[in-house]
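Hi L., both proteins are below.
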Amino acid sequence: MDTQTLQESLIVATDWTEDFQSMLETQGVSKSSRKSYMDDIRHFAAWFMEVNGQPFNPSLITGVDLRAYRSQALESKVSPATFNRRRSSLRRLVNYAMTSDLLSYDPFQGVDLMEQEEQPPRWLNDAELHRLNRQIEQSVNGATTGHWKWQAVRDQSMIALMLYAGLREAEVAALDWSDVQIGERKGKVIIRRGKGDKKRETPLNSEARRALNCWKELQGEQGAVFVGKFGERISTRLVQKRVEALRRAAGLDEKVTPHALRHTFAKRLLDAGTPLTVVSKLLGHARLETTARYVQPGWSDFEKAVEKL
């Protein structure tokens, strides 16, 4: 019997699974999350059968089992993220077993999460930023129809607001022309409802002003700043899709998202010596600790450090 068949038989043959999944559904857990929980539990059930030589049932879980499962994960170099996800699924199952009187105690005592190093926010290094900006310019200058030109100039302006003003994708989508002020040598955007419904104002540098002016010449300055081909306000999903298309065309990895562009804005400010308090205000962070994450070194910082040796 192969591993998948064994896992299925260990779970399907028991009569608690439907009750457990019904409880999850009642708690508002999505179908995809319920499937993920059951996949993790099947993995544990297969391990349980191999180690203990008996079919798995929630009433049989002991602290000894859970600690041994954690030790095996460490020895086999399972990533902390994977183990912690599996542990969370088993935690759900144990809670169910305790409320259903299948277990009389909590076997999770002493079964800790695996520590995982917090990853710094993703931002673009100088080479990646060059490739993205080059692709954007090629899209604008290489457009063969009026519609493609219109879309390319719009995309250039959207990305400029994330890269050079630190706007979130939702803030880009919600922007109205009445919130944009552009002069010859300065400009700003007013974010009426940022995260937590907080208002803030962000200055626009020359790159952002130039991109917005190009877009304004094509679109005009009435109503929503960014619209779709039928004149409707764009969605955050469209912002994500356009960034995705441009990062693919530029040959950048899948972690280059709208939020990575905002992170790039913050990182470049900090690298230029801008005080953390100023960057925090520009990003609209409620807590300075949130902005402090951008001070943490990224992989490119590590590479630069060792190259100096």
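That was the first. Here is the second:
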Amino acid sequence: MEEKIEKKSTWKAGNVPIAVVLITLNEEHNLEGALDNLKGWAQEVFIVDSFSQDKTVDIALDHGVHIIQRKFRGFGDQWNYALNELPITAKWTMKLDPDERLSNEIKKNIFDAIQSDSYDGLEFNRRWWLMGTPLPIYDRVLRVWRTGKCEFSDVSVNEHPMVDGDVKLINGVMEHLDSPNLHHWIQKQNEYSSSEAVASYSKPELSVKPRLMGSILERRMWLKHHFYKIPGRYQLLFLYFFIYRGLWKAGKVGYHSAQLWTDVYRWKELKTLEMKITGRISKEIIHGPGKPDSRVKQAIK
């Protein structure tokens, strides 16, 4: 059962008729910057939190955003809940991850496109970062739509927004700052690759039908479906990131970034293989100490 949290203050609405929605879990290191980035621009901000243990909720309350907590059941499920159940009043809605930042250029271009009232969805380019370094690698993301015109693919990970209507590509770059350090990045990718492996082992349907000659998303699903059958795939994947996507331009950081992203694909394959061998889905192992158990005598010394 979701729980609404009372706000300490009120969000000061910006001049753009857009509701920005974030889903969070322990995003203390990102959330302050994300909300500061939206001040004076977004009409509304909503957060669906998956019971964070850090100061995520405190930061949200201090900024006066609308926040609720709900058990996480998968990314597609969480986003569809947000779109269907949050009291959004703005005419437009935007998906934003806590580690993403909007440039002034893209803020202006989103506002101009909304004012033109000619499209139902907006997409733009996102630049990747790693080790505190902007990388010469971009991906196109669909993040803005008319409220009520979008639903998400119902998948546990790698969810995709599906907009009913015309979508326009606008100029400007959104920065994907990702993790504050490699320890956090590796931990996050370890969890991500485990979720992907569970999905692969369980053999759910892909979010869209894979087609080699289809849309960008359909081609991505085709590659995802066939990747693990390709001989020498990890050497090719490294070259894809390092040469084709241009990570060589970032020097040492680019080289190691290509290695790390290649490793994530390898982790997924090995974890899926382990589940096939053992015949059971891997479960998360709890790390670190917890609270004292009242049923057990506690040592004084």
